[in-house]
Amino acid sequence: MDKSVYVPSTWKRLIAQGLDQCFRLPLYWPFAKVLFLLVFTDEDVFLGLGEIIWILCVPFIYSGVFLWLLQATPGKWLMGLKVVPAEDPEAALQWQQCVLRPLVERLSLFVSWMPYALAFFRYDRTHLADWVAETRVVQFTPRPSRPPIRWFVGTLLCLLYIYEGLVSAVAFNRALNWETRRLDVRDLIVIEEED
Which tens digit of pLDDT belongs to each residue from 96-145? Predict the structure, then answer.
C-alpha cells in the first residue's frame, strides 16, 4: 500500500507541541507545592537532584514511549501527524529512533529551542533530532503549497534561542549547589531576572 506523505504545516507542528505540553502537565503534579511556594510565599524553595532529573526526564520518557507505541506523541496524533523513518515512511520506527529523537531534544537543554528553529532552513522541516535519529514528521493529507524556507525567521530564532539557552544554563549553574545537591529555585528565577 503506497501512502503519499506530505510535510506538515509549521502551525500544525506548533499546535501539536502545545498539546503535548498540556498532556505532560499532570506528570509534574509532584512539583505543585514548589510552584505554590514560589508564587505565594517568600520562603526559599529547593529542588533535590532526583527532582531535577525527574523534571528533565519527563519529556524524554513521554516522547519515547508514545513514539514506540503510536509513532507519534498524542499532540501529533491529534493533529494527524506521524513520525516516520526518513528513508521509508511506510516502515515502523526502530527502538533506537524512539530513544534517540527525544534524547537529542533533551540534550538541547543549553540551547533552548534552537534545534527546532533549524527546521525553518529546510523544505522538509526536519531539525537536529530528526537528523540524528533519521526520522521526519509527516502528514497524509496534501498541503495547498510547498513550505518555503524562512531564512530571516530561522536565523533570528536560532540566535535568540542560543542566547536564551546560554543565559538559562549560566543561571542554572549558579543556582545549583553541588555540595548539597539542591537547586535554589528562587535564586534561579532572581538570577534570570537580573540577567
Answer: 999 999 998 887 666 777 777 888 888 888 888 899 999 999 998 888 77
- In the three-class reduction of DSSP (H, G, I as helix; E, B as strand; rest coil), residue 113 is classed as coil
How do residues 34-81 score in pLDDT, each as one tens digit?
888 888 888 888 888 888 888 888 989 999 999 999 999 999 999 999
66 CB-near residues (< 8 Å, 6+ apart)? 72, 73, 74, 77
- 3-class SS string, 36-103: HHHHHCCCCCEEEHHHHHHHHHHHHHHHHHHHHHHCCCHHHHHCCEEEEECCCCCCCCCHHHHHHHHH
CB neighbours of residue 185 within 10 Å: 19
User: What is residue 120's DSSP assignment?
Assistant: G
Helix (H) or strand (E) holding 12: helix 10-24
CA distance 188 to 183: 8
Q: Are strands 135-139 and 182-184 parallel, antiparallel or unpaired?
A: unpaired
This prediction's pTM: 0.78
Cell 527546532 sits on residue: 116
Task: Please list, in sequence order, all residues whose beta carbon lies within 8 angstroms of the beta carbon of residue 167, skipping any fewer than 6 positions away.
Answer: 192, 195
